[in-house]
Amino acid sequence: MKFCKKYEEYMQEQKEKKNLPGVGFKKLKKILKKCRRRDHLPSLIASSSQQHGNNCPRECTVCDGTFFPELQKEMEDIVVWFNENAQKLLELHLASSFKKCLTWFTGNTRKTSHLGLIQEGKDLVNYALINAVAIRKILKKYDKIHESSQGQAFKTQVQKMRIEILQSPWLCELMAFHINLKESQKESGAVLASPPSLLGGCSFIFDDGKPFLSCELSDSVKVDIDLTCSICLDTVFDPISLTCGHIYCYMCACSAASVNVVDGLKAADPSEKCPLCREVCVYKGAVHLDELSILLKRSCREYWEERRKTERAERLQQAKEYWDYQCRSFTGV
């Protein structure tokens, strides 16, 4: 079955359950077909095309700004929906027993059960995956028709705009969530009847001493997340993801943003840059990776305990200095 048909069937099935945003794959392909027909116009247009490089001739609807703005809007809607729903699911997983009971009383029993959480996570990951593949295929088709690299350039642009779904910190959290659920099941000794697989190829590994979260989502999509903080050059502790997608230790991020841990990253100046990509305005919307933190604590117990003691002493010192300064400012000493 061709991917376009498979994608349309998937989205139709999902929209019967809930209203999901998606890529207008069929519509975008039609735009590109019109563009292809124009490429076969007489030699007058062909010569005009050569003068302007390998772009479409004259008033092509694609190059006029129909294709990319439409795809960008669809990508924004997909990422927003995915982030919101992944966040709700993970908050429920980490919620207190009281909150889970409230959810159960409201009638949503699927989301409070172990199997229900796994299935919900599986649905979210499948949604992210199939849309990532759809976007990749349509951009590849664009470049093939135009004999250009504008599709790849657009992909780089949306990554900077933080609307690439595979860059979402919530995908990283879902991967950690999957491993945590499996480990919890092993520790409790519970046996589930035919449990649905969330991410079959998902694992926490060490490669040359460096920690990675690795997941093969399909034959064509693989996600590898480096869990080494590029500031302290150690395994991330109390991990946080900046809006650009880079992951750091919380205290390292505070240091890079020139803020005290008492004030937190929300107090960071918008002009402060990510140490890796040099993007600005990346601290205020940072996401605490709680599931990843649980996974690292479970997988690196000795390191985690040693780092916890060190960070606790440093946080107490910073808090003492902060309140000493506030008292001196108040008293005028």
Automatic annotation (TrEMBL):
Residues 229-278 form the RING-type domain. This is RING-type E3 ubiquitin transferase. Pathway: Protein modification; protein ubiquitination. Pfam families: zf-C3HC4. One of its GO terms (biological process) is protein ubiquitination. It catalyses: S-ubiquitinyl-[E2 ubiquitin-conjugating enzyme]-L-cysteine + [acceptor protein]-L-lysine = [E2 ubiquitin-conjugating enzyme]-L-cysteine + N(6)-ubiquitinyl-[acceptor protein]-L-lysine. SMART domains: RING.
